[in-house]
Hints:
The complex is a heterodimer of chains A (180) and B (217).
Chain A (H helix, E strand, L loop, with lengths): L1 H12 L5 H16 L4 E4 L4 H13 L11 E3 L6 H7 L5 E6 L5 H12 L3 E7 L7 H4 L6 E5 L4 H23 L7
Parallel strand pairs in A: 1-2, 1-3, 3-4, 4-5
Helix pairs in contact in A: 1-7, 2-7, 3-7, 4-5
Chain B lengths: L2 H4 L1 H4 L5 H46 L4 E4 L3 H14 L10 E3 L4 H10 L7 H7 L5 E5 L6 H12 L3 E7 L3 H8 L5 E5 L4 H22 L4
Parallel strand pairs in B: 1-2, 1-3, 3-4, 4-5
Helix pairs in contact in B: 3-9, 4-9, 6-7
InterPro entries (chain B): GmhA/DiaA, SIS_dom, SIS_dom_sf, SIS_GmhA/DiaA_subfam
GO molecular function (chain B): carbohydrate derivative binding
Organism (chain B): Pseudonocardia bannensis
Amino acid sequence: MSTAFARRRAPIAALGTDADALAAACHAMARRFHRGGRLLALGTGPAAADAAHVVVEFVHPVIVGKRALPALALPGGGSAATVEVFGGPDDIALVFSSDGAEPALADAMAAAVRSGLLTVALLGGGADGRGGAVGAVPGLDHVIVVPSEDPRVVREARVTSYHVLWELVHVFLDAPEVLA
Amino acid sequence: MTTESLYPFLHAGATDAAALLADVARSTREKVAEIGRLREEVLDADAGALAACASEMADRFARGGRLYVFGNGGSSTDAMAVASLYVDPGPGRRPLPALALPCDVATLTALANDIGFEVVFARPLAAAGRPVDIAFGLSTSGGSANVLRGLATARERGLLTVGLAGYSGGAMAEAAERGEIDHLFVMPSVSVHRIQEAQTTVYQVLWELVQRALGST
């Protein structure tokens, strides 16, 4: 039991060292929302739950007084075709994956780069330690990799990441002078 | 905690994006430290209870039991994640039958439309639940009426009942006091986000312990 908890400590604490990268991603996301952009969430398998979760965070905030922002989970978890159908140049594509190994998600993010969306990837290290095929898509704007190969541990870090991400987007939206 | 105390720079009339970025990066590091502490607290308080719960869950699975998971909003997505974890655990692990009740949108919307939202989990459990099964309800507040009804119905039918809550447990803590929930784990935090993060760890560690108890490691 204590081993199970101990295994989680370092990879999740490592998020602290990604704080600057998370803050930069949130600043860029806030600027997109400010321009009228929408959030498109991508994730398959266990990460489909995360795509659904981040959407409800943005659309129905848990903190009273925070405004609803437009977000949707792409049908089927996301693909190049659904990014092209739903995505516009002001939008944000946010992808979740425990190892970045899904070819359909890599294609989807490549399509998002081509269409001018802001691209954000929250990934686990995977086999190459760098977020696999999804992490290797050229031109991604923000890539945050949790240093663990355990998909469960990666998922726990990711839940914290997108909670923080939602909160920080609102901090930036409350400071219009930094959104231009 | 107010926005002002978390982000003093914002309220001092900041015009400098770099300073605000530094401010939010610091607050992010604080949140990461906070969830680390909360996990340790849960481990200290509940290690024995988690082991006992996992052992009873493994026993139900070994006898052919199924897991029914449910919650609202963000917790409905946790229900999806729990079901996915059990059914499709990846190589070397044993797949186990688990269903997320919120994903049965036809039944959920039929019940919500025809009767009321408080029965959306209780009715499917009344229809399908057997004494060998497990009901697993998630709520951050501990007060969700439909989750409480679901657990109460499951308990009446002899299912093993497991609940995850936050704050000080709310109505779920009272139900557990009355013996209506077999295993209740409360994440002692007032932040919905930190509660959900600690609950994610709890249900994933429970799954690891169930796998281990069933001989798959």
